[in-house]
Amino acid sequence: MLARVRTPRRFKQITRYTRLLHAFCVPQNDSRWPEWNVVIGIEVHAQIKSRSKLFSDTWTSDYTLPPNTRVSPYDAAFPGTLPLLNPRCVELGVRTALALNAKIEPRSAFDRKHYFYADLPAGYQITQYYAPLATSGGLRLENREKYVRIKQIQLEQDTGKSTFDSREGISAIDLNRAGTGLMEIVSEPDLRSPEDAGEYVRTLQALVRSIGSSDGNMEQGSLRCDVNVSVNRHGAPHGTRCEIKNLNSVKFMMVAITSEVRRQIDLLESGRAVAQETRGFNEDKAETYSLRSKEDAPDYRYMPDPNLPPLLIDEAYVEKMRNEMPELPDATRARLQALGLSRRDTDVLMEVDSGREVRFDGEVGRGAVAYFDQISQGRDPKVVVNWITHELLGQLAFRRETFSDNHISAEQLGDLIDIVQQGRLTGYVTPGTSGKTLLRHMLDHCSEEMPSKLAEKFSLLAVSSDDSALERWCAEAIAALPQEADAVRRGNDKVINKIVGRVMKSSRGTANAQAVRAILLKMLQ
Ligand SMILES: Nc1ncnc2c1ncn2[C@@H]1O[C@H](COP(=O)(O)OP(=O)(O)OP(=O)(O)O)[C@@H](O)[C@H]1O
Ligand SMILES: [Mg+2]
Ligand SMILES: [Mg+2]
């Protein structure tokens, strides 16, 4: 007989590391480019979700505000104004670094990166170049069994926005965004395909959202990617990289990488070389184009910012942040699956959840996972998830609404699930259908009324056999049908169905026919 041996933890760890090692070293055979290895590293810029900007006390804005309504003299680089570091931005940066398992540097510093552009009034951007906030982290890609190393995380300022009006021939400058805090999260070149890159950005997006450090909204520009791509033949060292700037959708990023890989392979196969350059992406043509070559790369003249002291972070602060960390997506997934939810249901809940608001001051998240957690207290998790993902989300989708439009509270949905599960709903339709009808009614009519009360109002609650209403209806039916009643008394049992029918009619279908029959028989004995 085979003995069952528990796999020691260390062994499991070693297997995992071997797998990781393979991800780095083993050539990937991709049928799209069978002879080539693709190497990708991504710089993600995530806008920090703080109330005020990185170095001024002006409130951060979103794209809906009129231009230049959130600008302080500092943001506009008026002479004599000085930066003052916003501790909230540091806190959210540290939380992000912890979520990425990175090492928080006890001493980091701010530098000036000089370049001239109309949306950068000071002529330099404050960033962390020589000493970043955090280093050597990593992110696990659940669906691709991959671990991507994170080189560093740094804090920096966002720029303003310039829009060129080609008819008038002028540029319009909006400084609302100028000075907003950004986290630049730089990966090592560990990604090997457009799909890896897509999964990496989505996972990172879910992570920053789950800890509330960024909206991570690519369409609105609060998460932007610079993607570095190179190709090499199997076994050869990494090739020369090109950096594609400012991609703001996962889909376009994947298209941009595919097209860039093909361009580089075509160059190399025709005997030419790939020149290191910065490139843009044309969405209409699905092509990348050259912005500037390495030779034209601006000299940023980095220098430490003389107005900002080094940022010192002690272990006690990091420990405090670590203790206050909310549940991270990996842990949430594991917890939900341990409750018996299917992978699909878990994914749906977490996907719907990703737009959630999470605050650290004790307030609970308003997302789908929090909703599920609240309702599943004391109820069957699988039944609850079914009501949320199938019934509720299904009806919301039918109404072209999303989860954030849902106004049914956790208590209300919990109550609805209870009355359906306990078989208290009945009617001419099946209990499940009545439940769905009630749910639809609740979505149509925003109210705080509990479903059990609504069911009572609409006579959808089953009347239990000990209910006095039942006996009253039975007595009334006997009085209304004296001949039939006599027939039953004389032993003609079949006639009782007519009296039962009468009672069911009085109860508008809410009575339990078996119970009615039993009561009638007792009364007519
Ligand atoms: N051979 C390569 N192929 C693809 N990507 C690479 C390669 N070598 C490095 N990279 C990636 O390029 C990126 C370099 O980013 P980093 O911020 O360090 O420097 P940079 O792009 O030169 O500076 P800047 O922040 O000014 O754009 C990293 O994500 C890294 O993983
Ligand atoms: Mg960079
Ligand atoms: Mg770069």
Structural commentary:
It holds the Pfam family GatB_N. Residues 370-524 form the Asn/Gln amidotransferase domain. With 525 residues, the protein is an alpha+beta fold. It has three domains: 27-315, no CATH class; 326-457, no CATH class; 468-523, Orthogonal Bundle (Arc Repressor Mutant, subunit A). Helices cover 38% and strands 18% of the residues. The strands form four sheets. It has a nine-stranded mixed sheet with strand order 2-6-7-10-1-11-12-13-14. A three-stranded antiparallel sheet has the order 5-4-15, with no helix packed on it. Helix 8 crosses helix 9 and helix 15 crosses helix 16. The termini are far apart. It binds adenosine-5'-triphosphate and magnesium ion (MG) (2 copies). One magnesium ion is lined by residues 43, 226, 243. Adenosine-5'-triphosphate (ATP) binds next to strand 1, strand 10 and strand 11.
The total domain count is 3
Note the total helix count.
16
Provide mean pLDDT, rounded: 88
Number of strands: 16
- Uncertain runs are 1-15, 17-25, 356-365
The side-by-side strand order for the widest beta sheet comes to 2-6-7-10-1-11-12-13-14
- Biggest sheet layout: 9 strands, mixed
**Proportion of beta-strand residues:** 15-25%
Radius of gyration: 32 Å
Please identify the structural class as seen in this structure: alpha+beta
* Shape label: elongated
Residue share in helix: 25-40%
The molecules bound to the chains, other than polymers, are:
adenosine-5'-triphosphate, magnesium ion
* N- and C-termini, Cα separation: 68 Å
GO molecular function: asparaginyl-tRNA synthase (glutamine-hydrolyzing) activity; ATP binding; glutaminyl-tRNA synthase (glutamine-hydrolyzing) activity
Family: Belongs to the GatB/GatE family. GatB subfamily.
Domain Asn/Gln amidotransferase: 370-524
Function: Allows the formation of correctly charged Gln-tRNA(Gln) through the transamidation of misacylated Glu-tRNA(Gln) in the mitochondria. The reaction takes place in the presence of glutamine and ATP through an activated gamma-phospho-Glu-tRNA(Gln).
